[in-house]
Specification:
15 helices; TPT-domain-containing protein; globular; Sugar_P_trans_dom; transmembrane helix; transmembrane
């Protein structure tokens, strides 16, 4: 497999740990350009289309408009979730994820009937065999990733979690090398070492390090890497945009999470609903859902490199904002380590573009 395809796996790993399924802008960009491997073949993450039908014209927004909107929504989801967990002390991530997924399942079906944003659903041939052998196991990994990533916010600061996310790209590459769907090379190995070293240094500088939280976040990275590689193996060459993927995955993940709820949090979150109130619950889920809607407009708005740099800029703003809003401390050692890791991610993108 070419280095451009390796870059694909790295960008897949740049997924946001929000409480509702959705791909990062780099992943959605892959659907449009297939990382420039073959302009005649669109890459994608999910179920295969039959003969493509001519969809209704979707509205478009310029990069100057949609990129700031995406940055605000992406940051808002994480900050809002952290506020819910740690300020309002509603410490029930399984319930929150289940609620977000249920909201998304309903929301995508409303949009399907009222807008052209989900016309891609008509192009998807979903068989029982594909659902059981592909969608269901991938949905299981997705549920695990979402629950674990949200649980990490109970033990770690927002800023530190964002730093740990830089390792997602490395995890996906390591898993893809293990399953031999891509081949390692010296340049990639050096970049992987650079990213890993940066994350390690940032971890060493964390003042409020929590081992359990670190393990939970690491497990989330493992689940996410396995999910993305599973998509590459089972659903290679299939076409879905972020909302269409949400249309199929949200009900599956919501059901799996609901089945896990009695064994994890029980009835406790339901007794707290009156204290939290419907406004917080609805707006929290709505912001997460709007992030996925924004991703649809973001896909074709800019190049893959611009989207990568946008994600880096968003992470920096989020780390800065979390220190101001939640009072978390970021040390000079963490800044240095995270800068090294981000430099590795940008170098990977630039290396891929040159090739």
């Amino acid at each position: 497999m070419t280095s451009a395809q390796d870059e694909k796996h790295t960008q897949l790993a740049k997924v946001e740990d929000v409480a509702v399924p959705g791909f990062s802008p780099e992943q959605h960009q892959l659907v449009r350009e297939d990382l420039e491997i073959d302009d005649s073949e669109e890459a994608s993450m999910l179920p295969s289309p039959v003969v493509a039908q001519t969809p209704r014209q979707k509205p478009k927004l310029t990069a100057a408009i949609i990129i700031p909107i995406w940055i605000v929504l992406s940051s808002s989801v994480i900050i809002y979730n952290n506020y819910l967990y740690n300020t309002l002390h509603f410490r029930y991530p399984v319930f929150v994820v289940t609620w977000h997924l249920t909201f998304a399942a309903i929301g995508t079906r409303i949009l399907q009937r009222t807008t052209p944003l989900l016309d891609g659903v008509k192009d998807v041939s979903m068989s029982k065999d594909m659902f059981l052998k592909s969608i269901l196991p991938i949905g299981f990994l997705f549920s695990g990733s979402l629950i674990l990533s949200n649980t990490a916010y109970l033990y770690l600061s927002v800023s530190y979690i964002q730093m740990l996310k830089a390792f997602n790209a490395v995890a996906v590459l390591l898993v893809s090398w293990t399953f031999r769907i891509s081949e390692p090379n010296r340049k990639l190995a050096l970049i992987v070492l650079m990213i890993s070293s940066g994350v390690a240094v940032a971890s060493g500088g964390e003042l409020k390090f929590n081992m359990f939280g670190f393990i939970v976040q690491a497990a989330s990275v493992g689940f996410e890497a396995a999910r993305l590689v599973m998509i590459e193996i089972l659903l290679h060459g299939l076409k879905m945009d972020p909302l269409v993927s949400l249309h199929y995955y949200a009900p599956v993940c919501a059901f799996l999470n609901l089945a896990a709820l009695p064994f994890t949090e029980g009835l406790a979150p339901f007794f707290e609903l009156a204290r939290i109130g419907p406004f917080i619950l609805i707006t929290n889920a709505a912001v997460a859902f709007l992030l996925n809607v924004a991703a649809v407009f973001l896909v074709g708005a800019a190049s893959g490199l611009v989207l990568t740099l946008t994600g880096v800029f968003k992470d920096i703003l989020l780390i800065t904002g979390s220190t101001l809003i939640f009072g978390s401390t970021v040390t000079a050692i963490q800044v240095f380590g995270y800068s090294v890791a981000l430099g590795g991610l940008v170098m990977f993108k630039l290396t891929g573009n040159k090739k």
